[in-house]
Amino acid sequence: MKIALLGYGKMGKIIEQIALSRQHEIVLKISSNNLHELTKENLQLADAVIEFSTPGTVLDNITACLDADVPVVVGTTGWHNMLGTIKEKCLSGNHSLLYGTNFSVGVNIFFHVNKVLARLMNKYPYYEVQVEEIHHTQKLDSPSGTAITIAEGITENLERKAGWINILTGGETADDSNIPADQLLIESHRIESVPGTHTVIYDSEVDSIEFKHTAHNRNGFALGAVLAAEWLHDKKGFYPVEDMFNFN
Ligand SMILES: NC(=O)C1=CN([C@@H]2O[C@H](COP(=O)(O)OP(=O)(O)OC[C@H]3O[C@@H](n4cnc5c(N)ncnc54)[C@H](OP(=O)(O)O)[C@@H]3O)[C@@H](O)[C@H]2O)C=CC1
Ligand SMILES: O=C(O)C1=N[C@H](C(=O)O)C[C@H](O)C1
C-alpha cells in the first residue's frame, strides 16, 4: 500500500519504520516545515493516510483527506468533541475514516475489560473509583484521549458516576476534596519520557483493586495504526478502532 503520513513526529517516525517493514511505501510525510506539500494531488498519491499530528491541526487535516477522498486513520487526540460533525461529513460524502484514542492491542483489551469491571461494580457501592494517567511532558492535551475513553467506559456502565473531572499535576497526588460524588476523577501527571500509563483504581476501606496498562514504548500504538490502515483501505464508512477488534 502507498501511505501518506500527516504528522512526522515521535509517532510518525515509528509508523514509517513499521509500515516499511510490512512492505508498504511512504509517499508523503508532512510536518510543520513542509505544509505546502499537503495538497489534494499529493494526498491522492496514497492508498491511505495515517494522521498523528496535533490537536490544533487534526481537523483541517481530516477535512483535507475527506475532500481528497483518501481513507484516513486518525490517531491524534484532543478533537473528539467534533466526532459528530466529522462523522456526518465522512458518511455524507461516502468517505472512509477510522479513529481511536489508542491503537495498541493491549489498551483495546483494557478498554473492553474496563467496561465489564464497571458493570460488576454496580453491585459493590462501597468502592470509590478513579482514573490515573501518566505521560511525557511534551504532551499537549490532558486528560489523555485514552483516559477519556476509559472514563466514558466507566460512566456509561457504572450507575453512580455521571461524568468526569480532570486534575492535571506534575507528579504529586491531586486534591480531590471538592469533586462531587457522582463525578469520576481523572488524575493526569506529566513526567519526562513516559510513553503512556493508565490505571483504574477501585478503593474501599478494606482493600484496593488496581487495573493498569503500561506502554513500554510507542511500538504498539504504531503497529496498531498500520494495521488499521490495512483494515480500512478497501472499506467505506466511519469506524472507531474497536471495530477492528472482535472482543464481543
Ligand atoms: N491513538 C494512538 O494510539 C496514539 C495517539 N497519539 C496522539 O498522536 C498525536 C501525535 O503524537 P506525537 O507523534 O507523540 O507528537 P509529536 O509532537 O512528536 O509530533 C507531531 C507532529 O505533527 C507535526 N505537525 C504540526 N503541524 C502539522 C500540520 N498542520 N499537519 C501535519 N503535521 C503537523 C509536527 O511537526 P513539527 O515537529 O515540525 O512541529 C510533528 O511532526 C498526539 O495527539 C498524541 O496524543 C500518540 C500516541 C498513540
Ligand atoms: O500523546 C501521547 O504520547 C499519547 N497519546 C494518546 C492519548 O492521548 O491517549 C495515546 C497514548 O497514551 C500516548
Automatic annotation (TrEMBL):
InterPro entries: DapB_C, DapB_N, DHDPR_bac, NAD(P)-bd_dom_sf. GO terms for biological process: diaminopimelate biosynthetic process; lysine biosynthetic process via diaminopimelate. Pathway: Amino-acid biosynthesis; L-lysine biosynthesis via DAP pathway; (S)-tetrahydrodipicolinate from L-aspartate: step 4/4. GO terms for cellular component: cytosol. It holds the Pfam family DapB_N. One of its GO terms (molecular function) is 4-hydroxy-tetrahydrodipicolinate reductase. Residues 106-244 form the Dihydrodipicolinate reductase C-terminal domain. Residues 1-88 form the Dihydrodipicolinate reductase N-terminal domain. It catalyses: (S)-2,3,4,5-tetrahydrodipicolinate + NADP(+) + H2O = (2S,4S)-4-hydroxy-2,3,4,5-tetrahydrodipicolinate + NADPH + H(+); (S)-2,3,4,5-tetrahydrodipicolinate + NAD(+) + H2O = (2S,4S)-4-hydroxy-2,3,4,5-tetrahydrodipicolinate + NADH + H(+). It is an enzyme of class 1 (oxidoreductase). Keywords: Amino-acid biosynthesis, Diaminopimelate biosynthesis, Lysine biosynthesis, NAD, NADP, Oxidoreductase. Its EC number is 1.17.1.8. Belongs to the DapB family. This is 4-hydroxy-tetrahydrodipicolinate reductase.
